[in-house]
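Re: Re: token formats

Sure, here are both.
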Amino acid sequence: MAPERGSAAARTPRQDFPPRWVGKALKVAFACTHYAAVAAAALVAYFVSAHLLAAHSAGTLLPRLQAALDASHTLQASHLLAAAAAAALVGAVAALALRRRQPPVYLLDFECYRPEDKNKVTYNRFITGSRDSGFFDAAAMDFQTRILHKSGLSDETFFPPGLHLDPPEFDMAWARQEAELVMFNAVADLLAKTGLQPRQVDVLVVNCSLFNPTPSLSAMVIHHFGMRSDIDSYNLGGMGCSAGMIAVDLAAKMLRERSKGGYALVVSTENITQNWYHGNERSMLIPNTIFRMGSAAVLLTSKASERHRSKYELQHVVRVHLGADDAAYKCVFQRPDEGRFIGVELSKDLVGVAGRAMEVNMTRLGPLVLPWSEKLMFAANWVARRTLRLSVPKYVPDFKQAFNHFCLHAGGRGVVEGLSKQLGLGPRQMAPSANTLHWYGNTSSSTVWYSFGFVESVQGVRKGDIVWQIGFGSGFKCNSVVWRALRDVHTMHKAWQHIEGREGQALETLQRIAAETAAERQQKQVDATVTVAAHQRAAPAEAADAAAAKQLPKQGKEDTAPLPNGSQRANGGVRVLRNGKVVAPVS
């Protein structure tokens, strides 16, 4: 019999199947088996070595070897054919394995742009500038102010120069200036750091979702730095905040096509100037409060000679696109509002779509990165649900067993907190994305690189560590990139030099906002309870008044002249409201 709603059984949370402790036990068992095998191999090697040493000491080793060499063995033709066939089979398998193995791609280095302090936009500057622009009505300003104060952003994020003017300027010229500012500085710093010349770059991939001028952004980079005429150049537009991962994937594929190896430059950015929405629709106002100026430049190589100074090796790229589904396709949608102001609309389906996209991505990524203990747990849960038809919750693998560092897309406070909760991350693992959101806001596709920079600058990376970058974008897309550290890395990036002594400020801010939000929610529940109780106490009195009104004697025809507040005039001049309550005689 199913438990009743509200009963203790109904409120009991469903337990994982298999229990989490089974996975830990399997992990320990696999580790013990591994160490036991190593110990057994060492023991066998010890006994063989001891036996050979004893034979040599006794003077019997060399005579035995000489006798074995002098012994004549006649090989039959069938033996020779079998040996030749085996050698051919081994050679074919080895050739196939080498052919299927993709050439390695290395991350030489990357750089995140740190704007000048004059471009900082404080809360007060944002609110004052938005109000003085004259674009927003009172309701829109109130909404943006409330969202901003709960966004988790600091007073030290950055707006492009055009939006600092009074009135703001957001035409093509100012948009180009922003693009040049963020891209050229990031690329110049990266080339200086790596010692690479612009004409050594073989592949260039630039991604920017909402600003796509002619000539393209990639052409702007080529022209500014004087790159070669035979460079493979690509410009990715309209692909949302996950386009940085797509750009890495494209660059890696282009490098693998080069037999002698090469260098690929990836530039990820977003343009704020022309995409600052100045209408009043709430679904389009949220990007105004969280999107900020930023850019990242990344240098990849497939040259084996560069492995010794590269930081990471590319392990996996997993891409998911749910564009065939209507809700997923339209959940992040650029369109004009009723006043013909163009903005990006965030639908109410966004959270659900993002969760579904991430689930699909993790399902595909899991077999590539998870340890065998987690794979077996997932398989057992799948068999229990699909084959045995048991009513058990879906098992969510522990990805902390696969990754050492997490660079989540800092799309907003809800995204950072939601993903961290879903993955079961602790404060240290959540810190890179939380600090990116706090100090830089949502810089679109470059957020995962700002988070990576925080990891290198503040936390440090050890040789062999696995780093996971995951981004979400319109369409709807969820893309993952996995890196393996080739050496210890603890490098202070220019983008994070300002954080010294303030490393915990971002997490403290998120905790404070979460506590305030919980208190407000609790107060609303209390207010709602008080209101319901008041209505319940007033209901008997209203019922009695209604009954009294029905018992009044009828004196002629009812006066149907309308009265204020939807009331009516009953016989005898009595005023009766729509709920039937008698208020007072009308003279």
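Second one below.
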Amino acid sequence: MSSLAMGSPWVRIMVLQELRPPFCLPGLALKTCLSIRRRNLSVSASAVTDPSGGEVRVRFAPSPTGNLHVGGARTALFNYLFARSQGGKFVLRIEDTDLERSTRKSEEAMLNDLSWLGLDWDEGPGVGGEYGPYRQSERNSMYKEYAEKLLESGTVYKCFCSNEELEQMKETAKRLQLPPVYTGKWGTAPDKEIQEELAKGTPYTYRFRVPKEGILKITDLIRGEVSWNLDTLGDFVIMRSNGQPVYNFCVTVDDATMRISHVIRAEEHLPNTLRQALIYKALGFPMPSFAHVSLILAPDRSKLSKRHGATSVGQFRDMGYLPQAMVNYLALLGWGDGTENEFFTINQLVEKFSISRVNKSGAIFDGTKLRWMNGQHLRSLPPEELISIFRDRWKSTGILLEYDGAFVKGATELLKDAIELVSDAEKALQNLLSYPLHSTLVSDECKPVVQDKLSEVAASLISAYESGELRQALEEGHAGWQKWVKSFGKSLKRKGKSLFMPIRVLLTGKLHGPDMGGSIILIHKAGTCGAISPQAGFITLDERFKMLKEVDWESLPQVEEPLQSPAGVPS
């Protein structure tokens, strides 16, 4: 048995000395001819050098046949982080060879989603680069050129089998309980038969010759050693009869000619590596390092899909998620820095990211945690940026007619702690502006408050408002409010919960909410600034006090008097 080193110093092929008929593969270090038919072949691949001459070059290669799934976004992110952490290049390539399903609209949406996430590419559509074009549909001439080279070397042959013949082969293999592989009929056909079919104009594909026996091994950067038995593969098609190249052939040629050093992709592509590795070797290209990332799973541990809810980046953007929160959360789906920290900016991720810390087990997509993380990022924004985001949301949804700086700033500060999504800001402000007094008063939860002489507190509150005393306090802001409420409590001989809960119910119409003083001051501002839309459902303080005066307190549950026991009978 001899050991032959191929074009890349990290690939070794072990072959028995039966070499017939020979064909030469370009790029062999020893210029040696290898046999098409081999009794035993073992290929072992591990990254010792890279095809880019030392520069890290990675690529994200989506198919523009739909929206950018969160799984694809995570793959793009891992490629981006690896490239940036290594001072390398992040390449974007569009795999649009599926002409029936690929659309420019889908491509544009994917590019927009990547840009929104902040994953800017160094080479690709809209940017250019020295290894373009970056759409597969524009690289057909290159695929044909390399296919012809393989045909000339004997690594590839013309196959004239019809679809009916191929189906029959599958049925025969199934009946014999054999792998459904191509029998190799045209791989050994005499030249005379080939010429006859060509003369008849019979359509043909290009098939790649696969050794009949042996094992191919690669060392995956995430999964370790992975191997395949070659006898389960069979000779495979690289060019269809219509002249269109097949996916695995395109990808190999693209990655090689674009000098990609590391292929970081989803684990569902792992089986493709077998065909691609054989094509790399046949063309004499050095192979990149491979890293296959685990799938993103739903809570039931099935593959995340539309039936589990939102799955595309665009959907999450429209729901009010921030790009920095999406990036942070996606990075944690299968990766961690070894600490308990879960909050990262994209720059921190670049600094800490390494492939060695990517987990090979499936990651569970937890929508509740993503929502929580979005809230953390939202509240960590600079105040002016957060104010701007909420203001734009409130204007776009019709709550605000115009921008009032003091009101928007106050509302943002008051409401931000309860807001996790940008879209939550609309509901939070509408809730503040509403006044569901009646439904609150008749609720079971409010019963103890009503029975604690709420009508008396209401009468005193109405008096304070009509005298102008409360209005003046609200005009003075927090200091004025605090001074007034302290004085109001003393006059009623109430403090703490027995004071603040009745005031909250009477002025906000609710039992719960953000800071009471801040809420009432903001309600007062909303009634005077003129920025609130009539469609916002806002109830002004004047309207609230009018409603308070109309409450029929006698109809509400009162404190039940204890039953009188007969004289001499203990109760």
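The first strand starts at residue 2 and ends at 5. The chain is about 40% helix and 10% strand.
- S.
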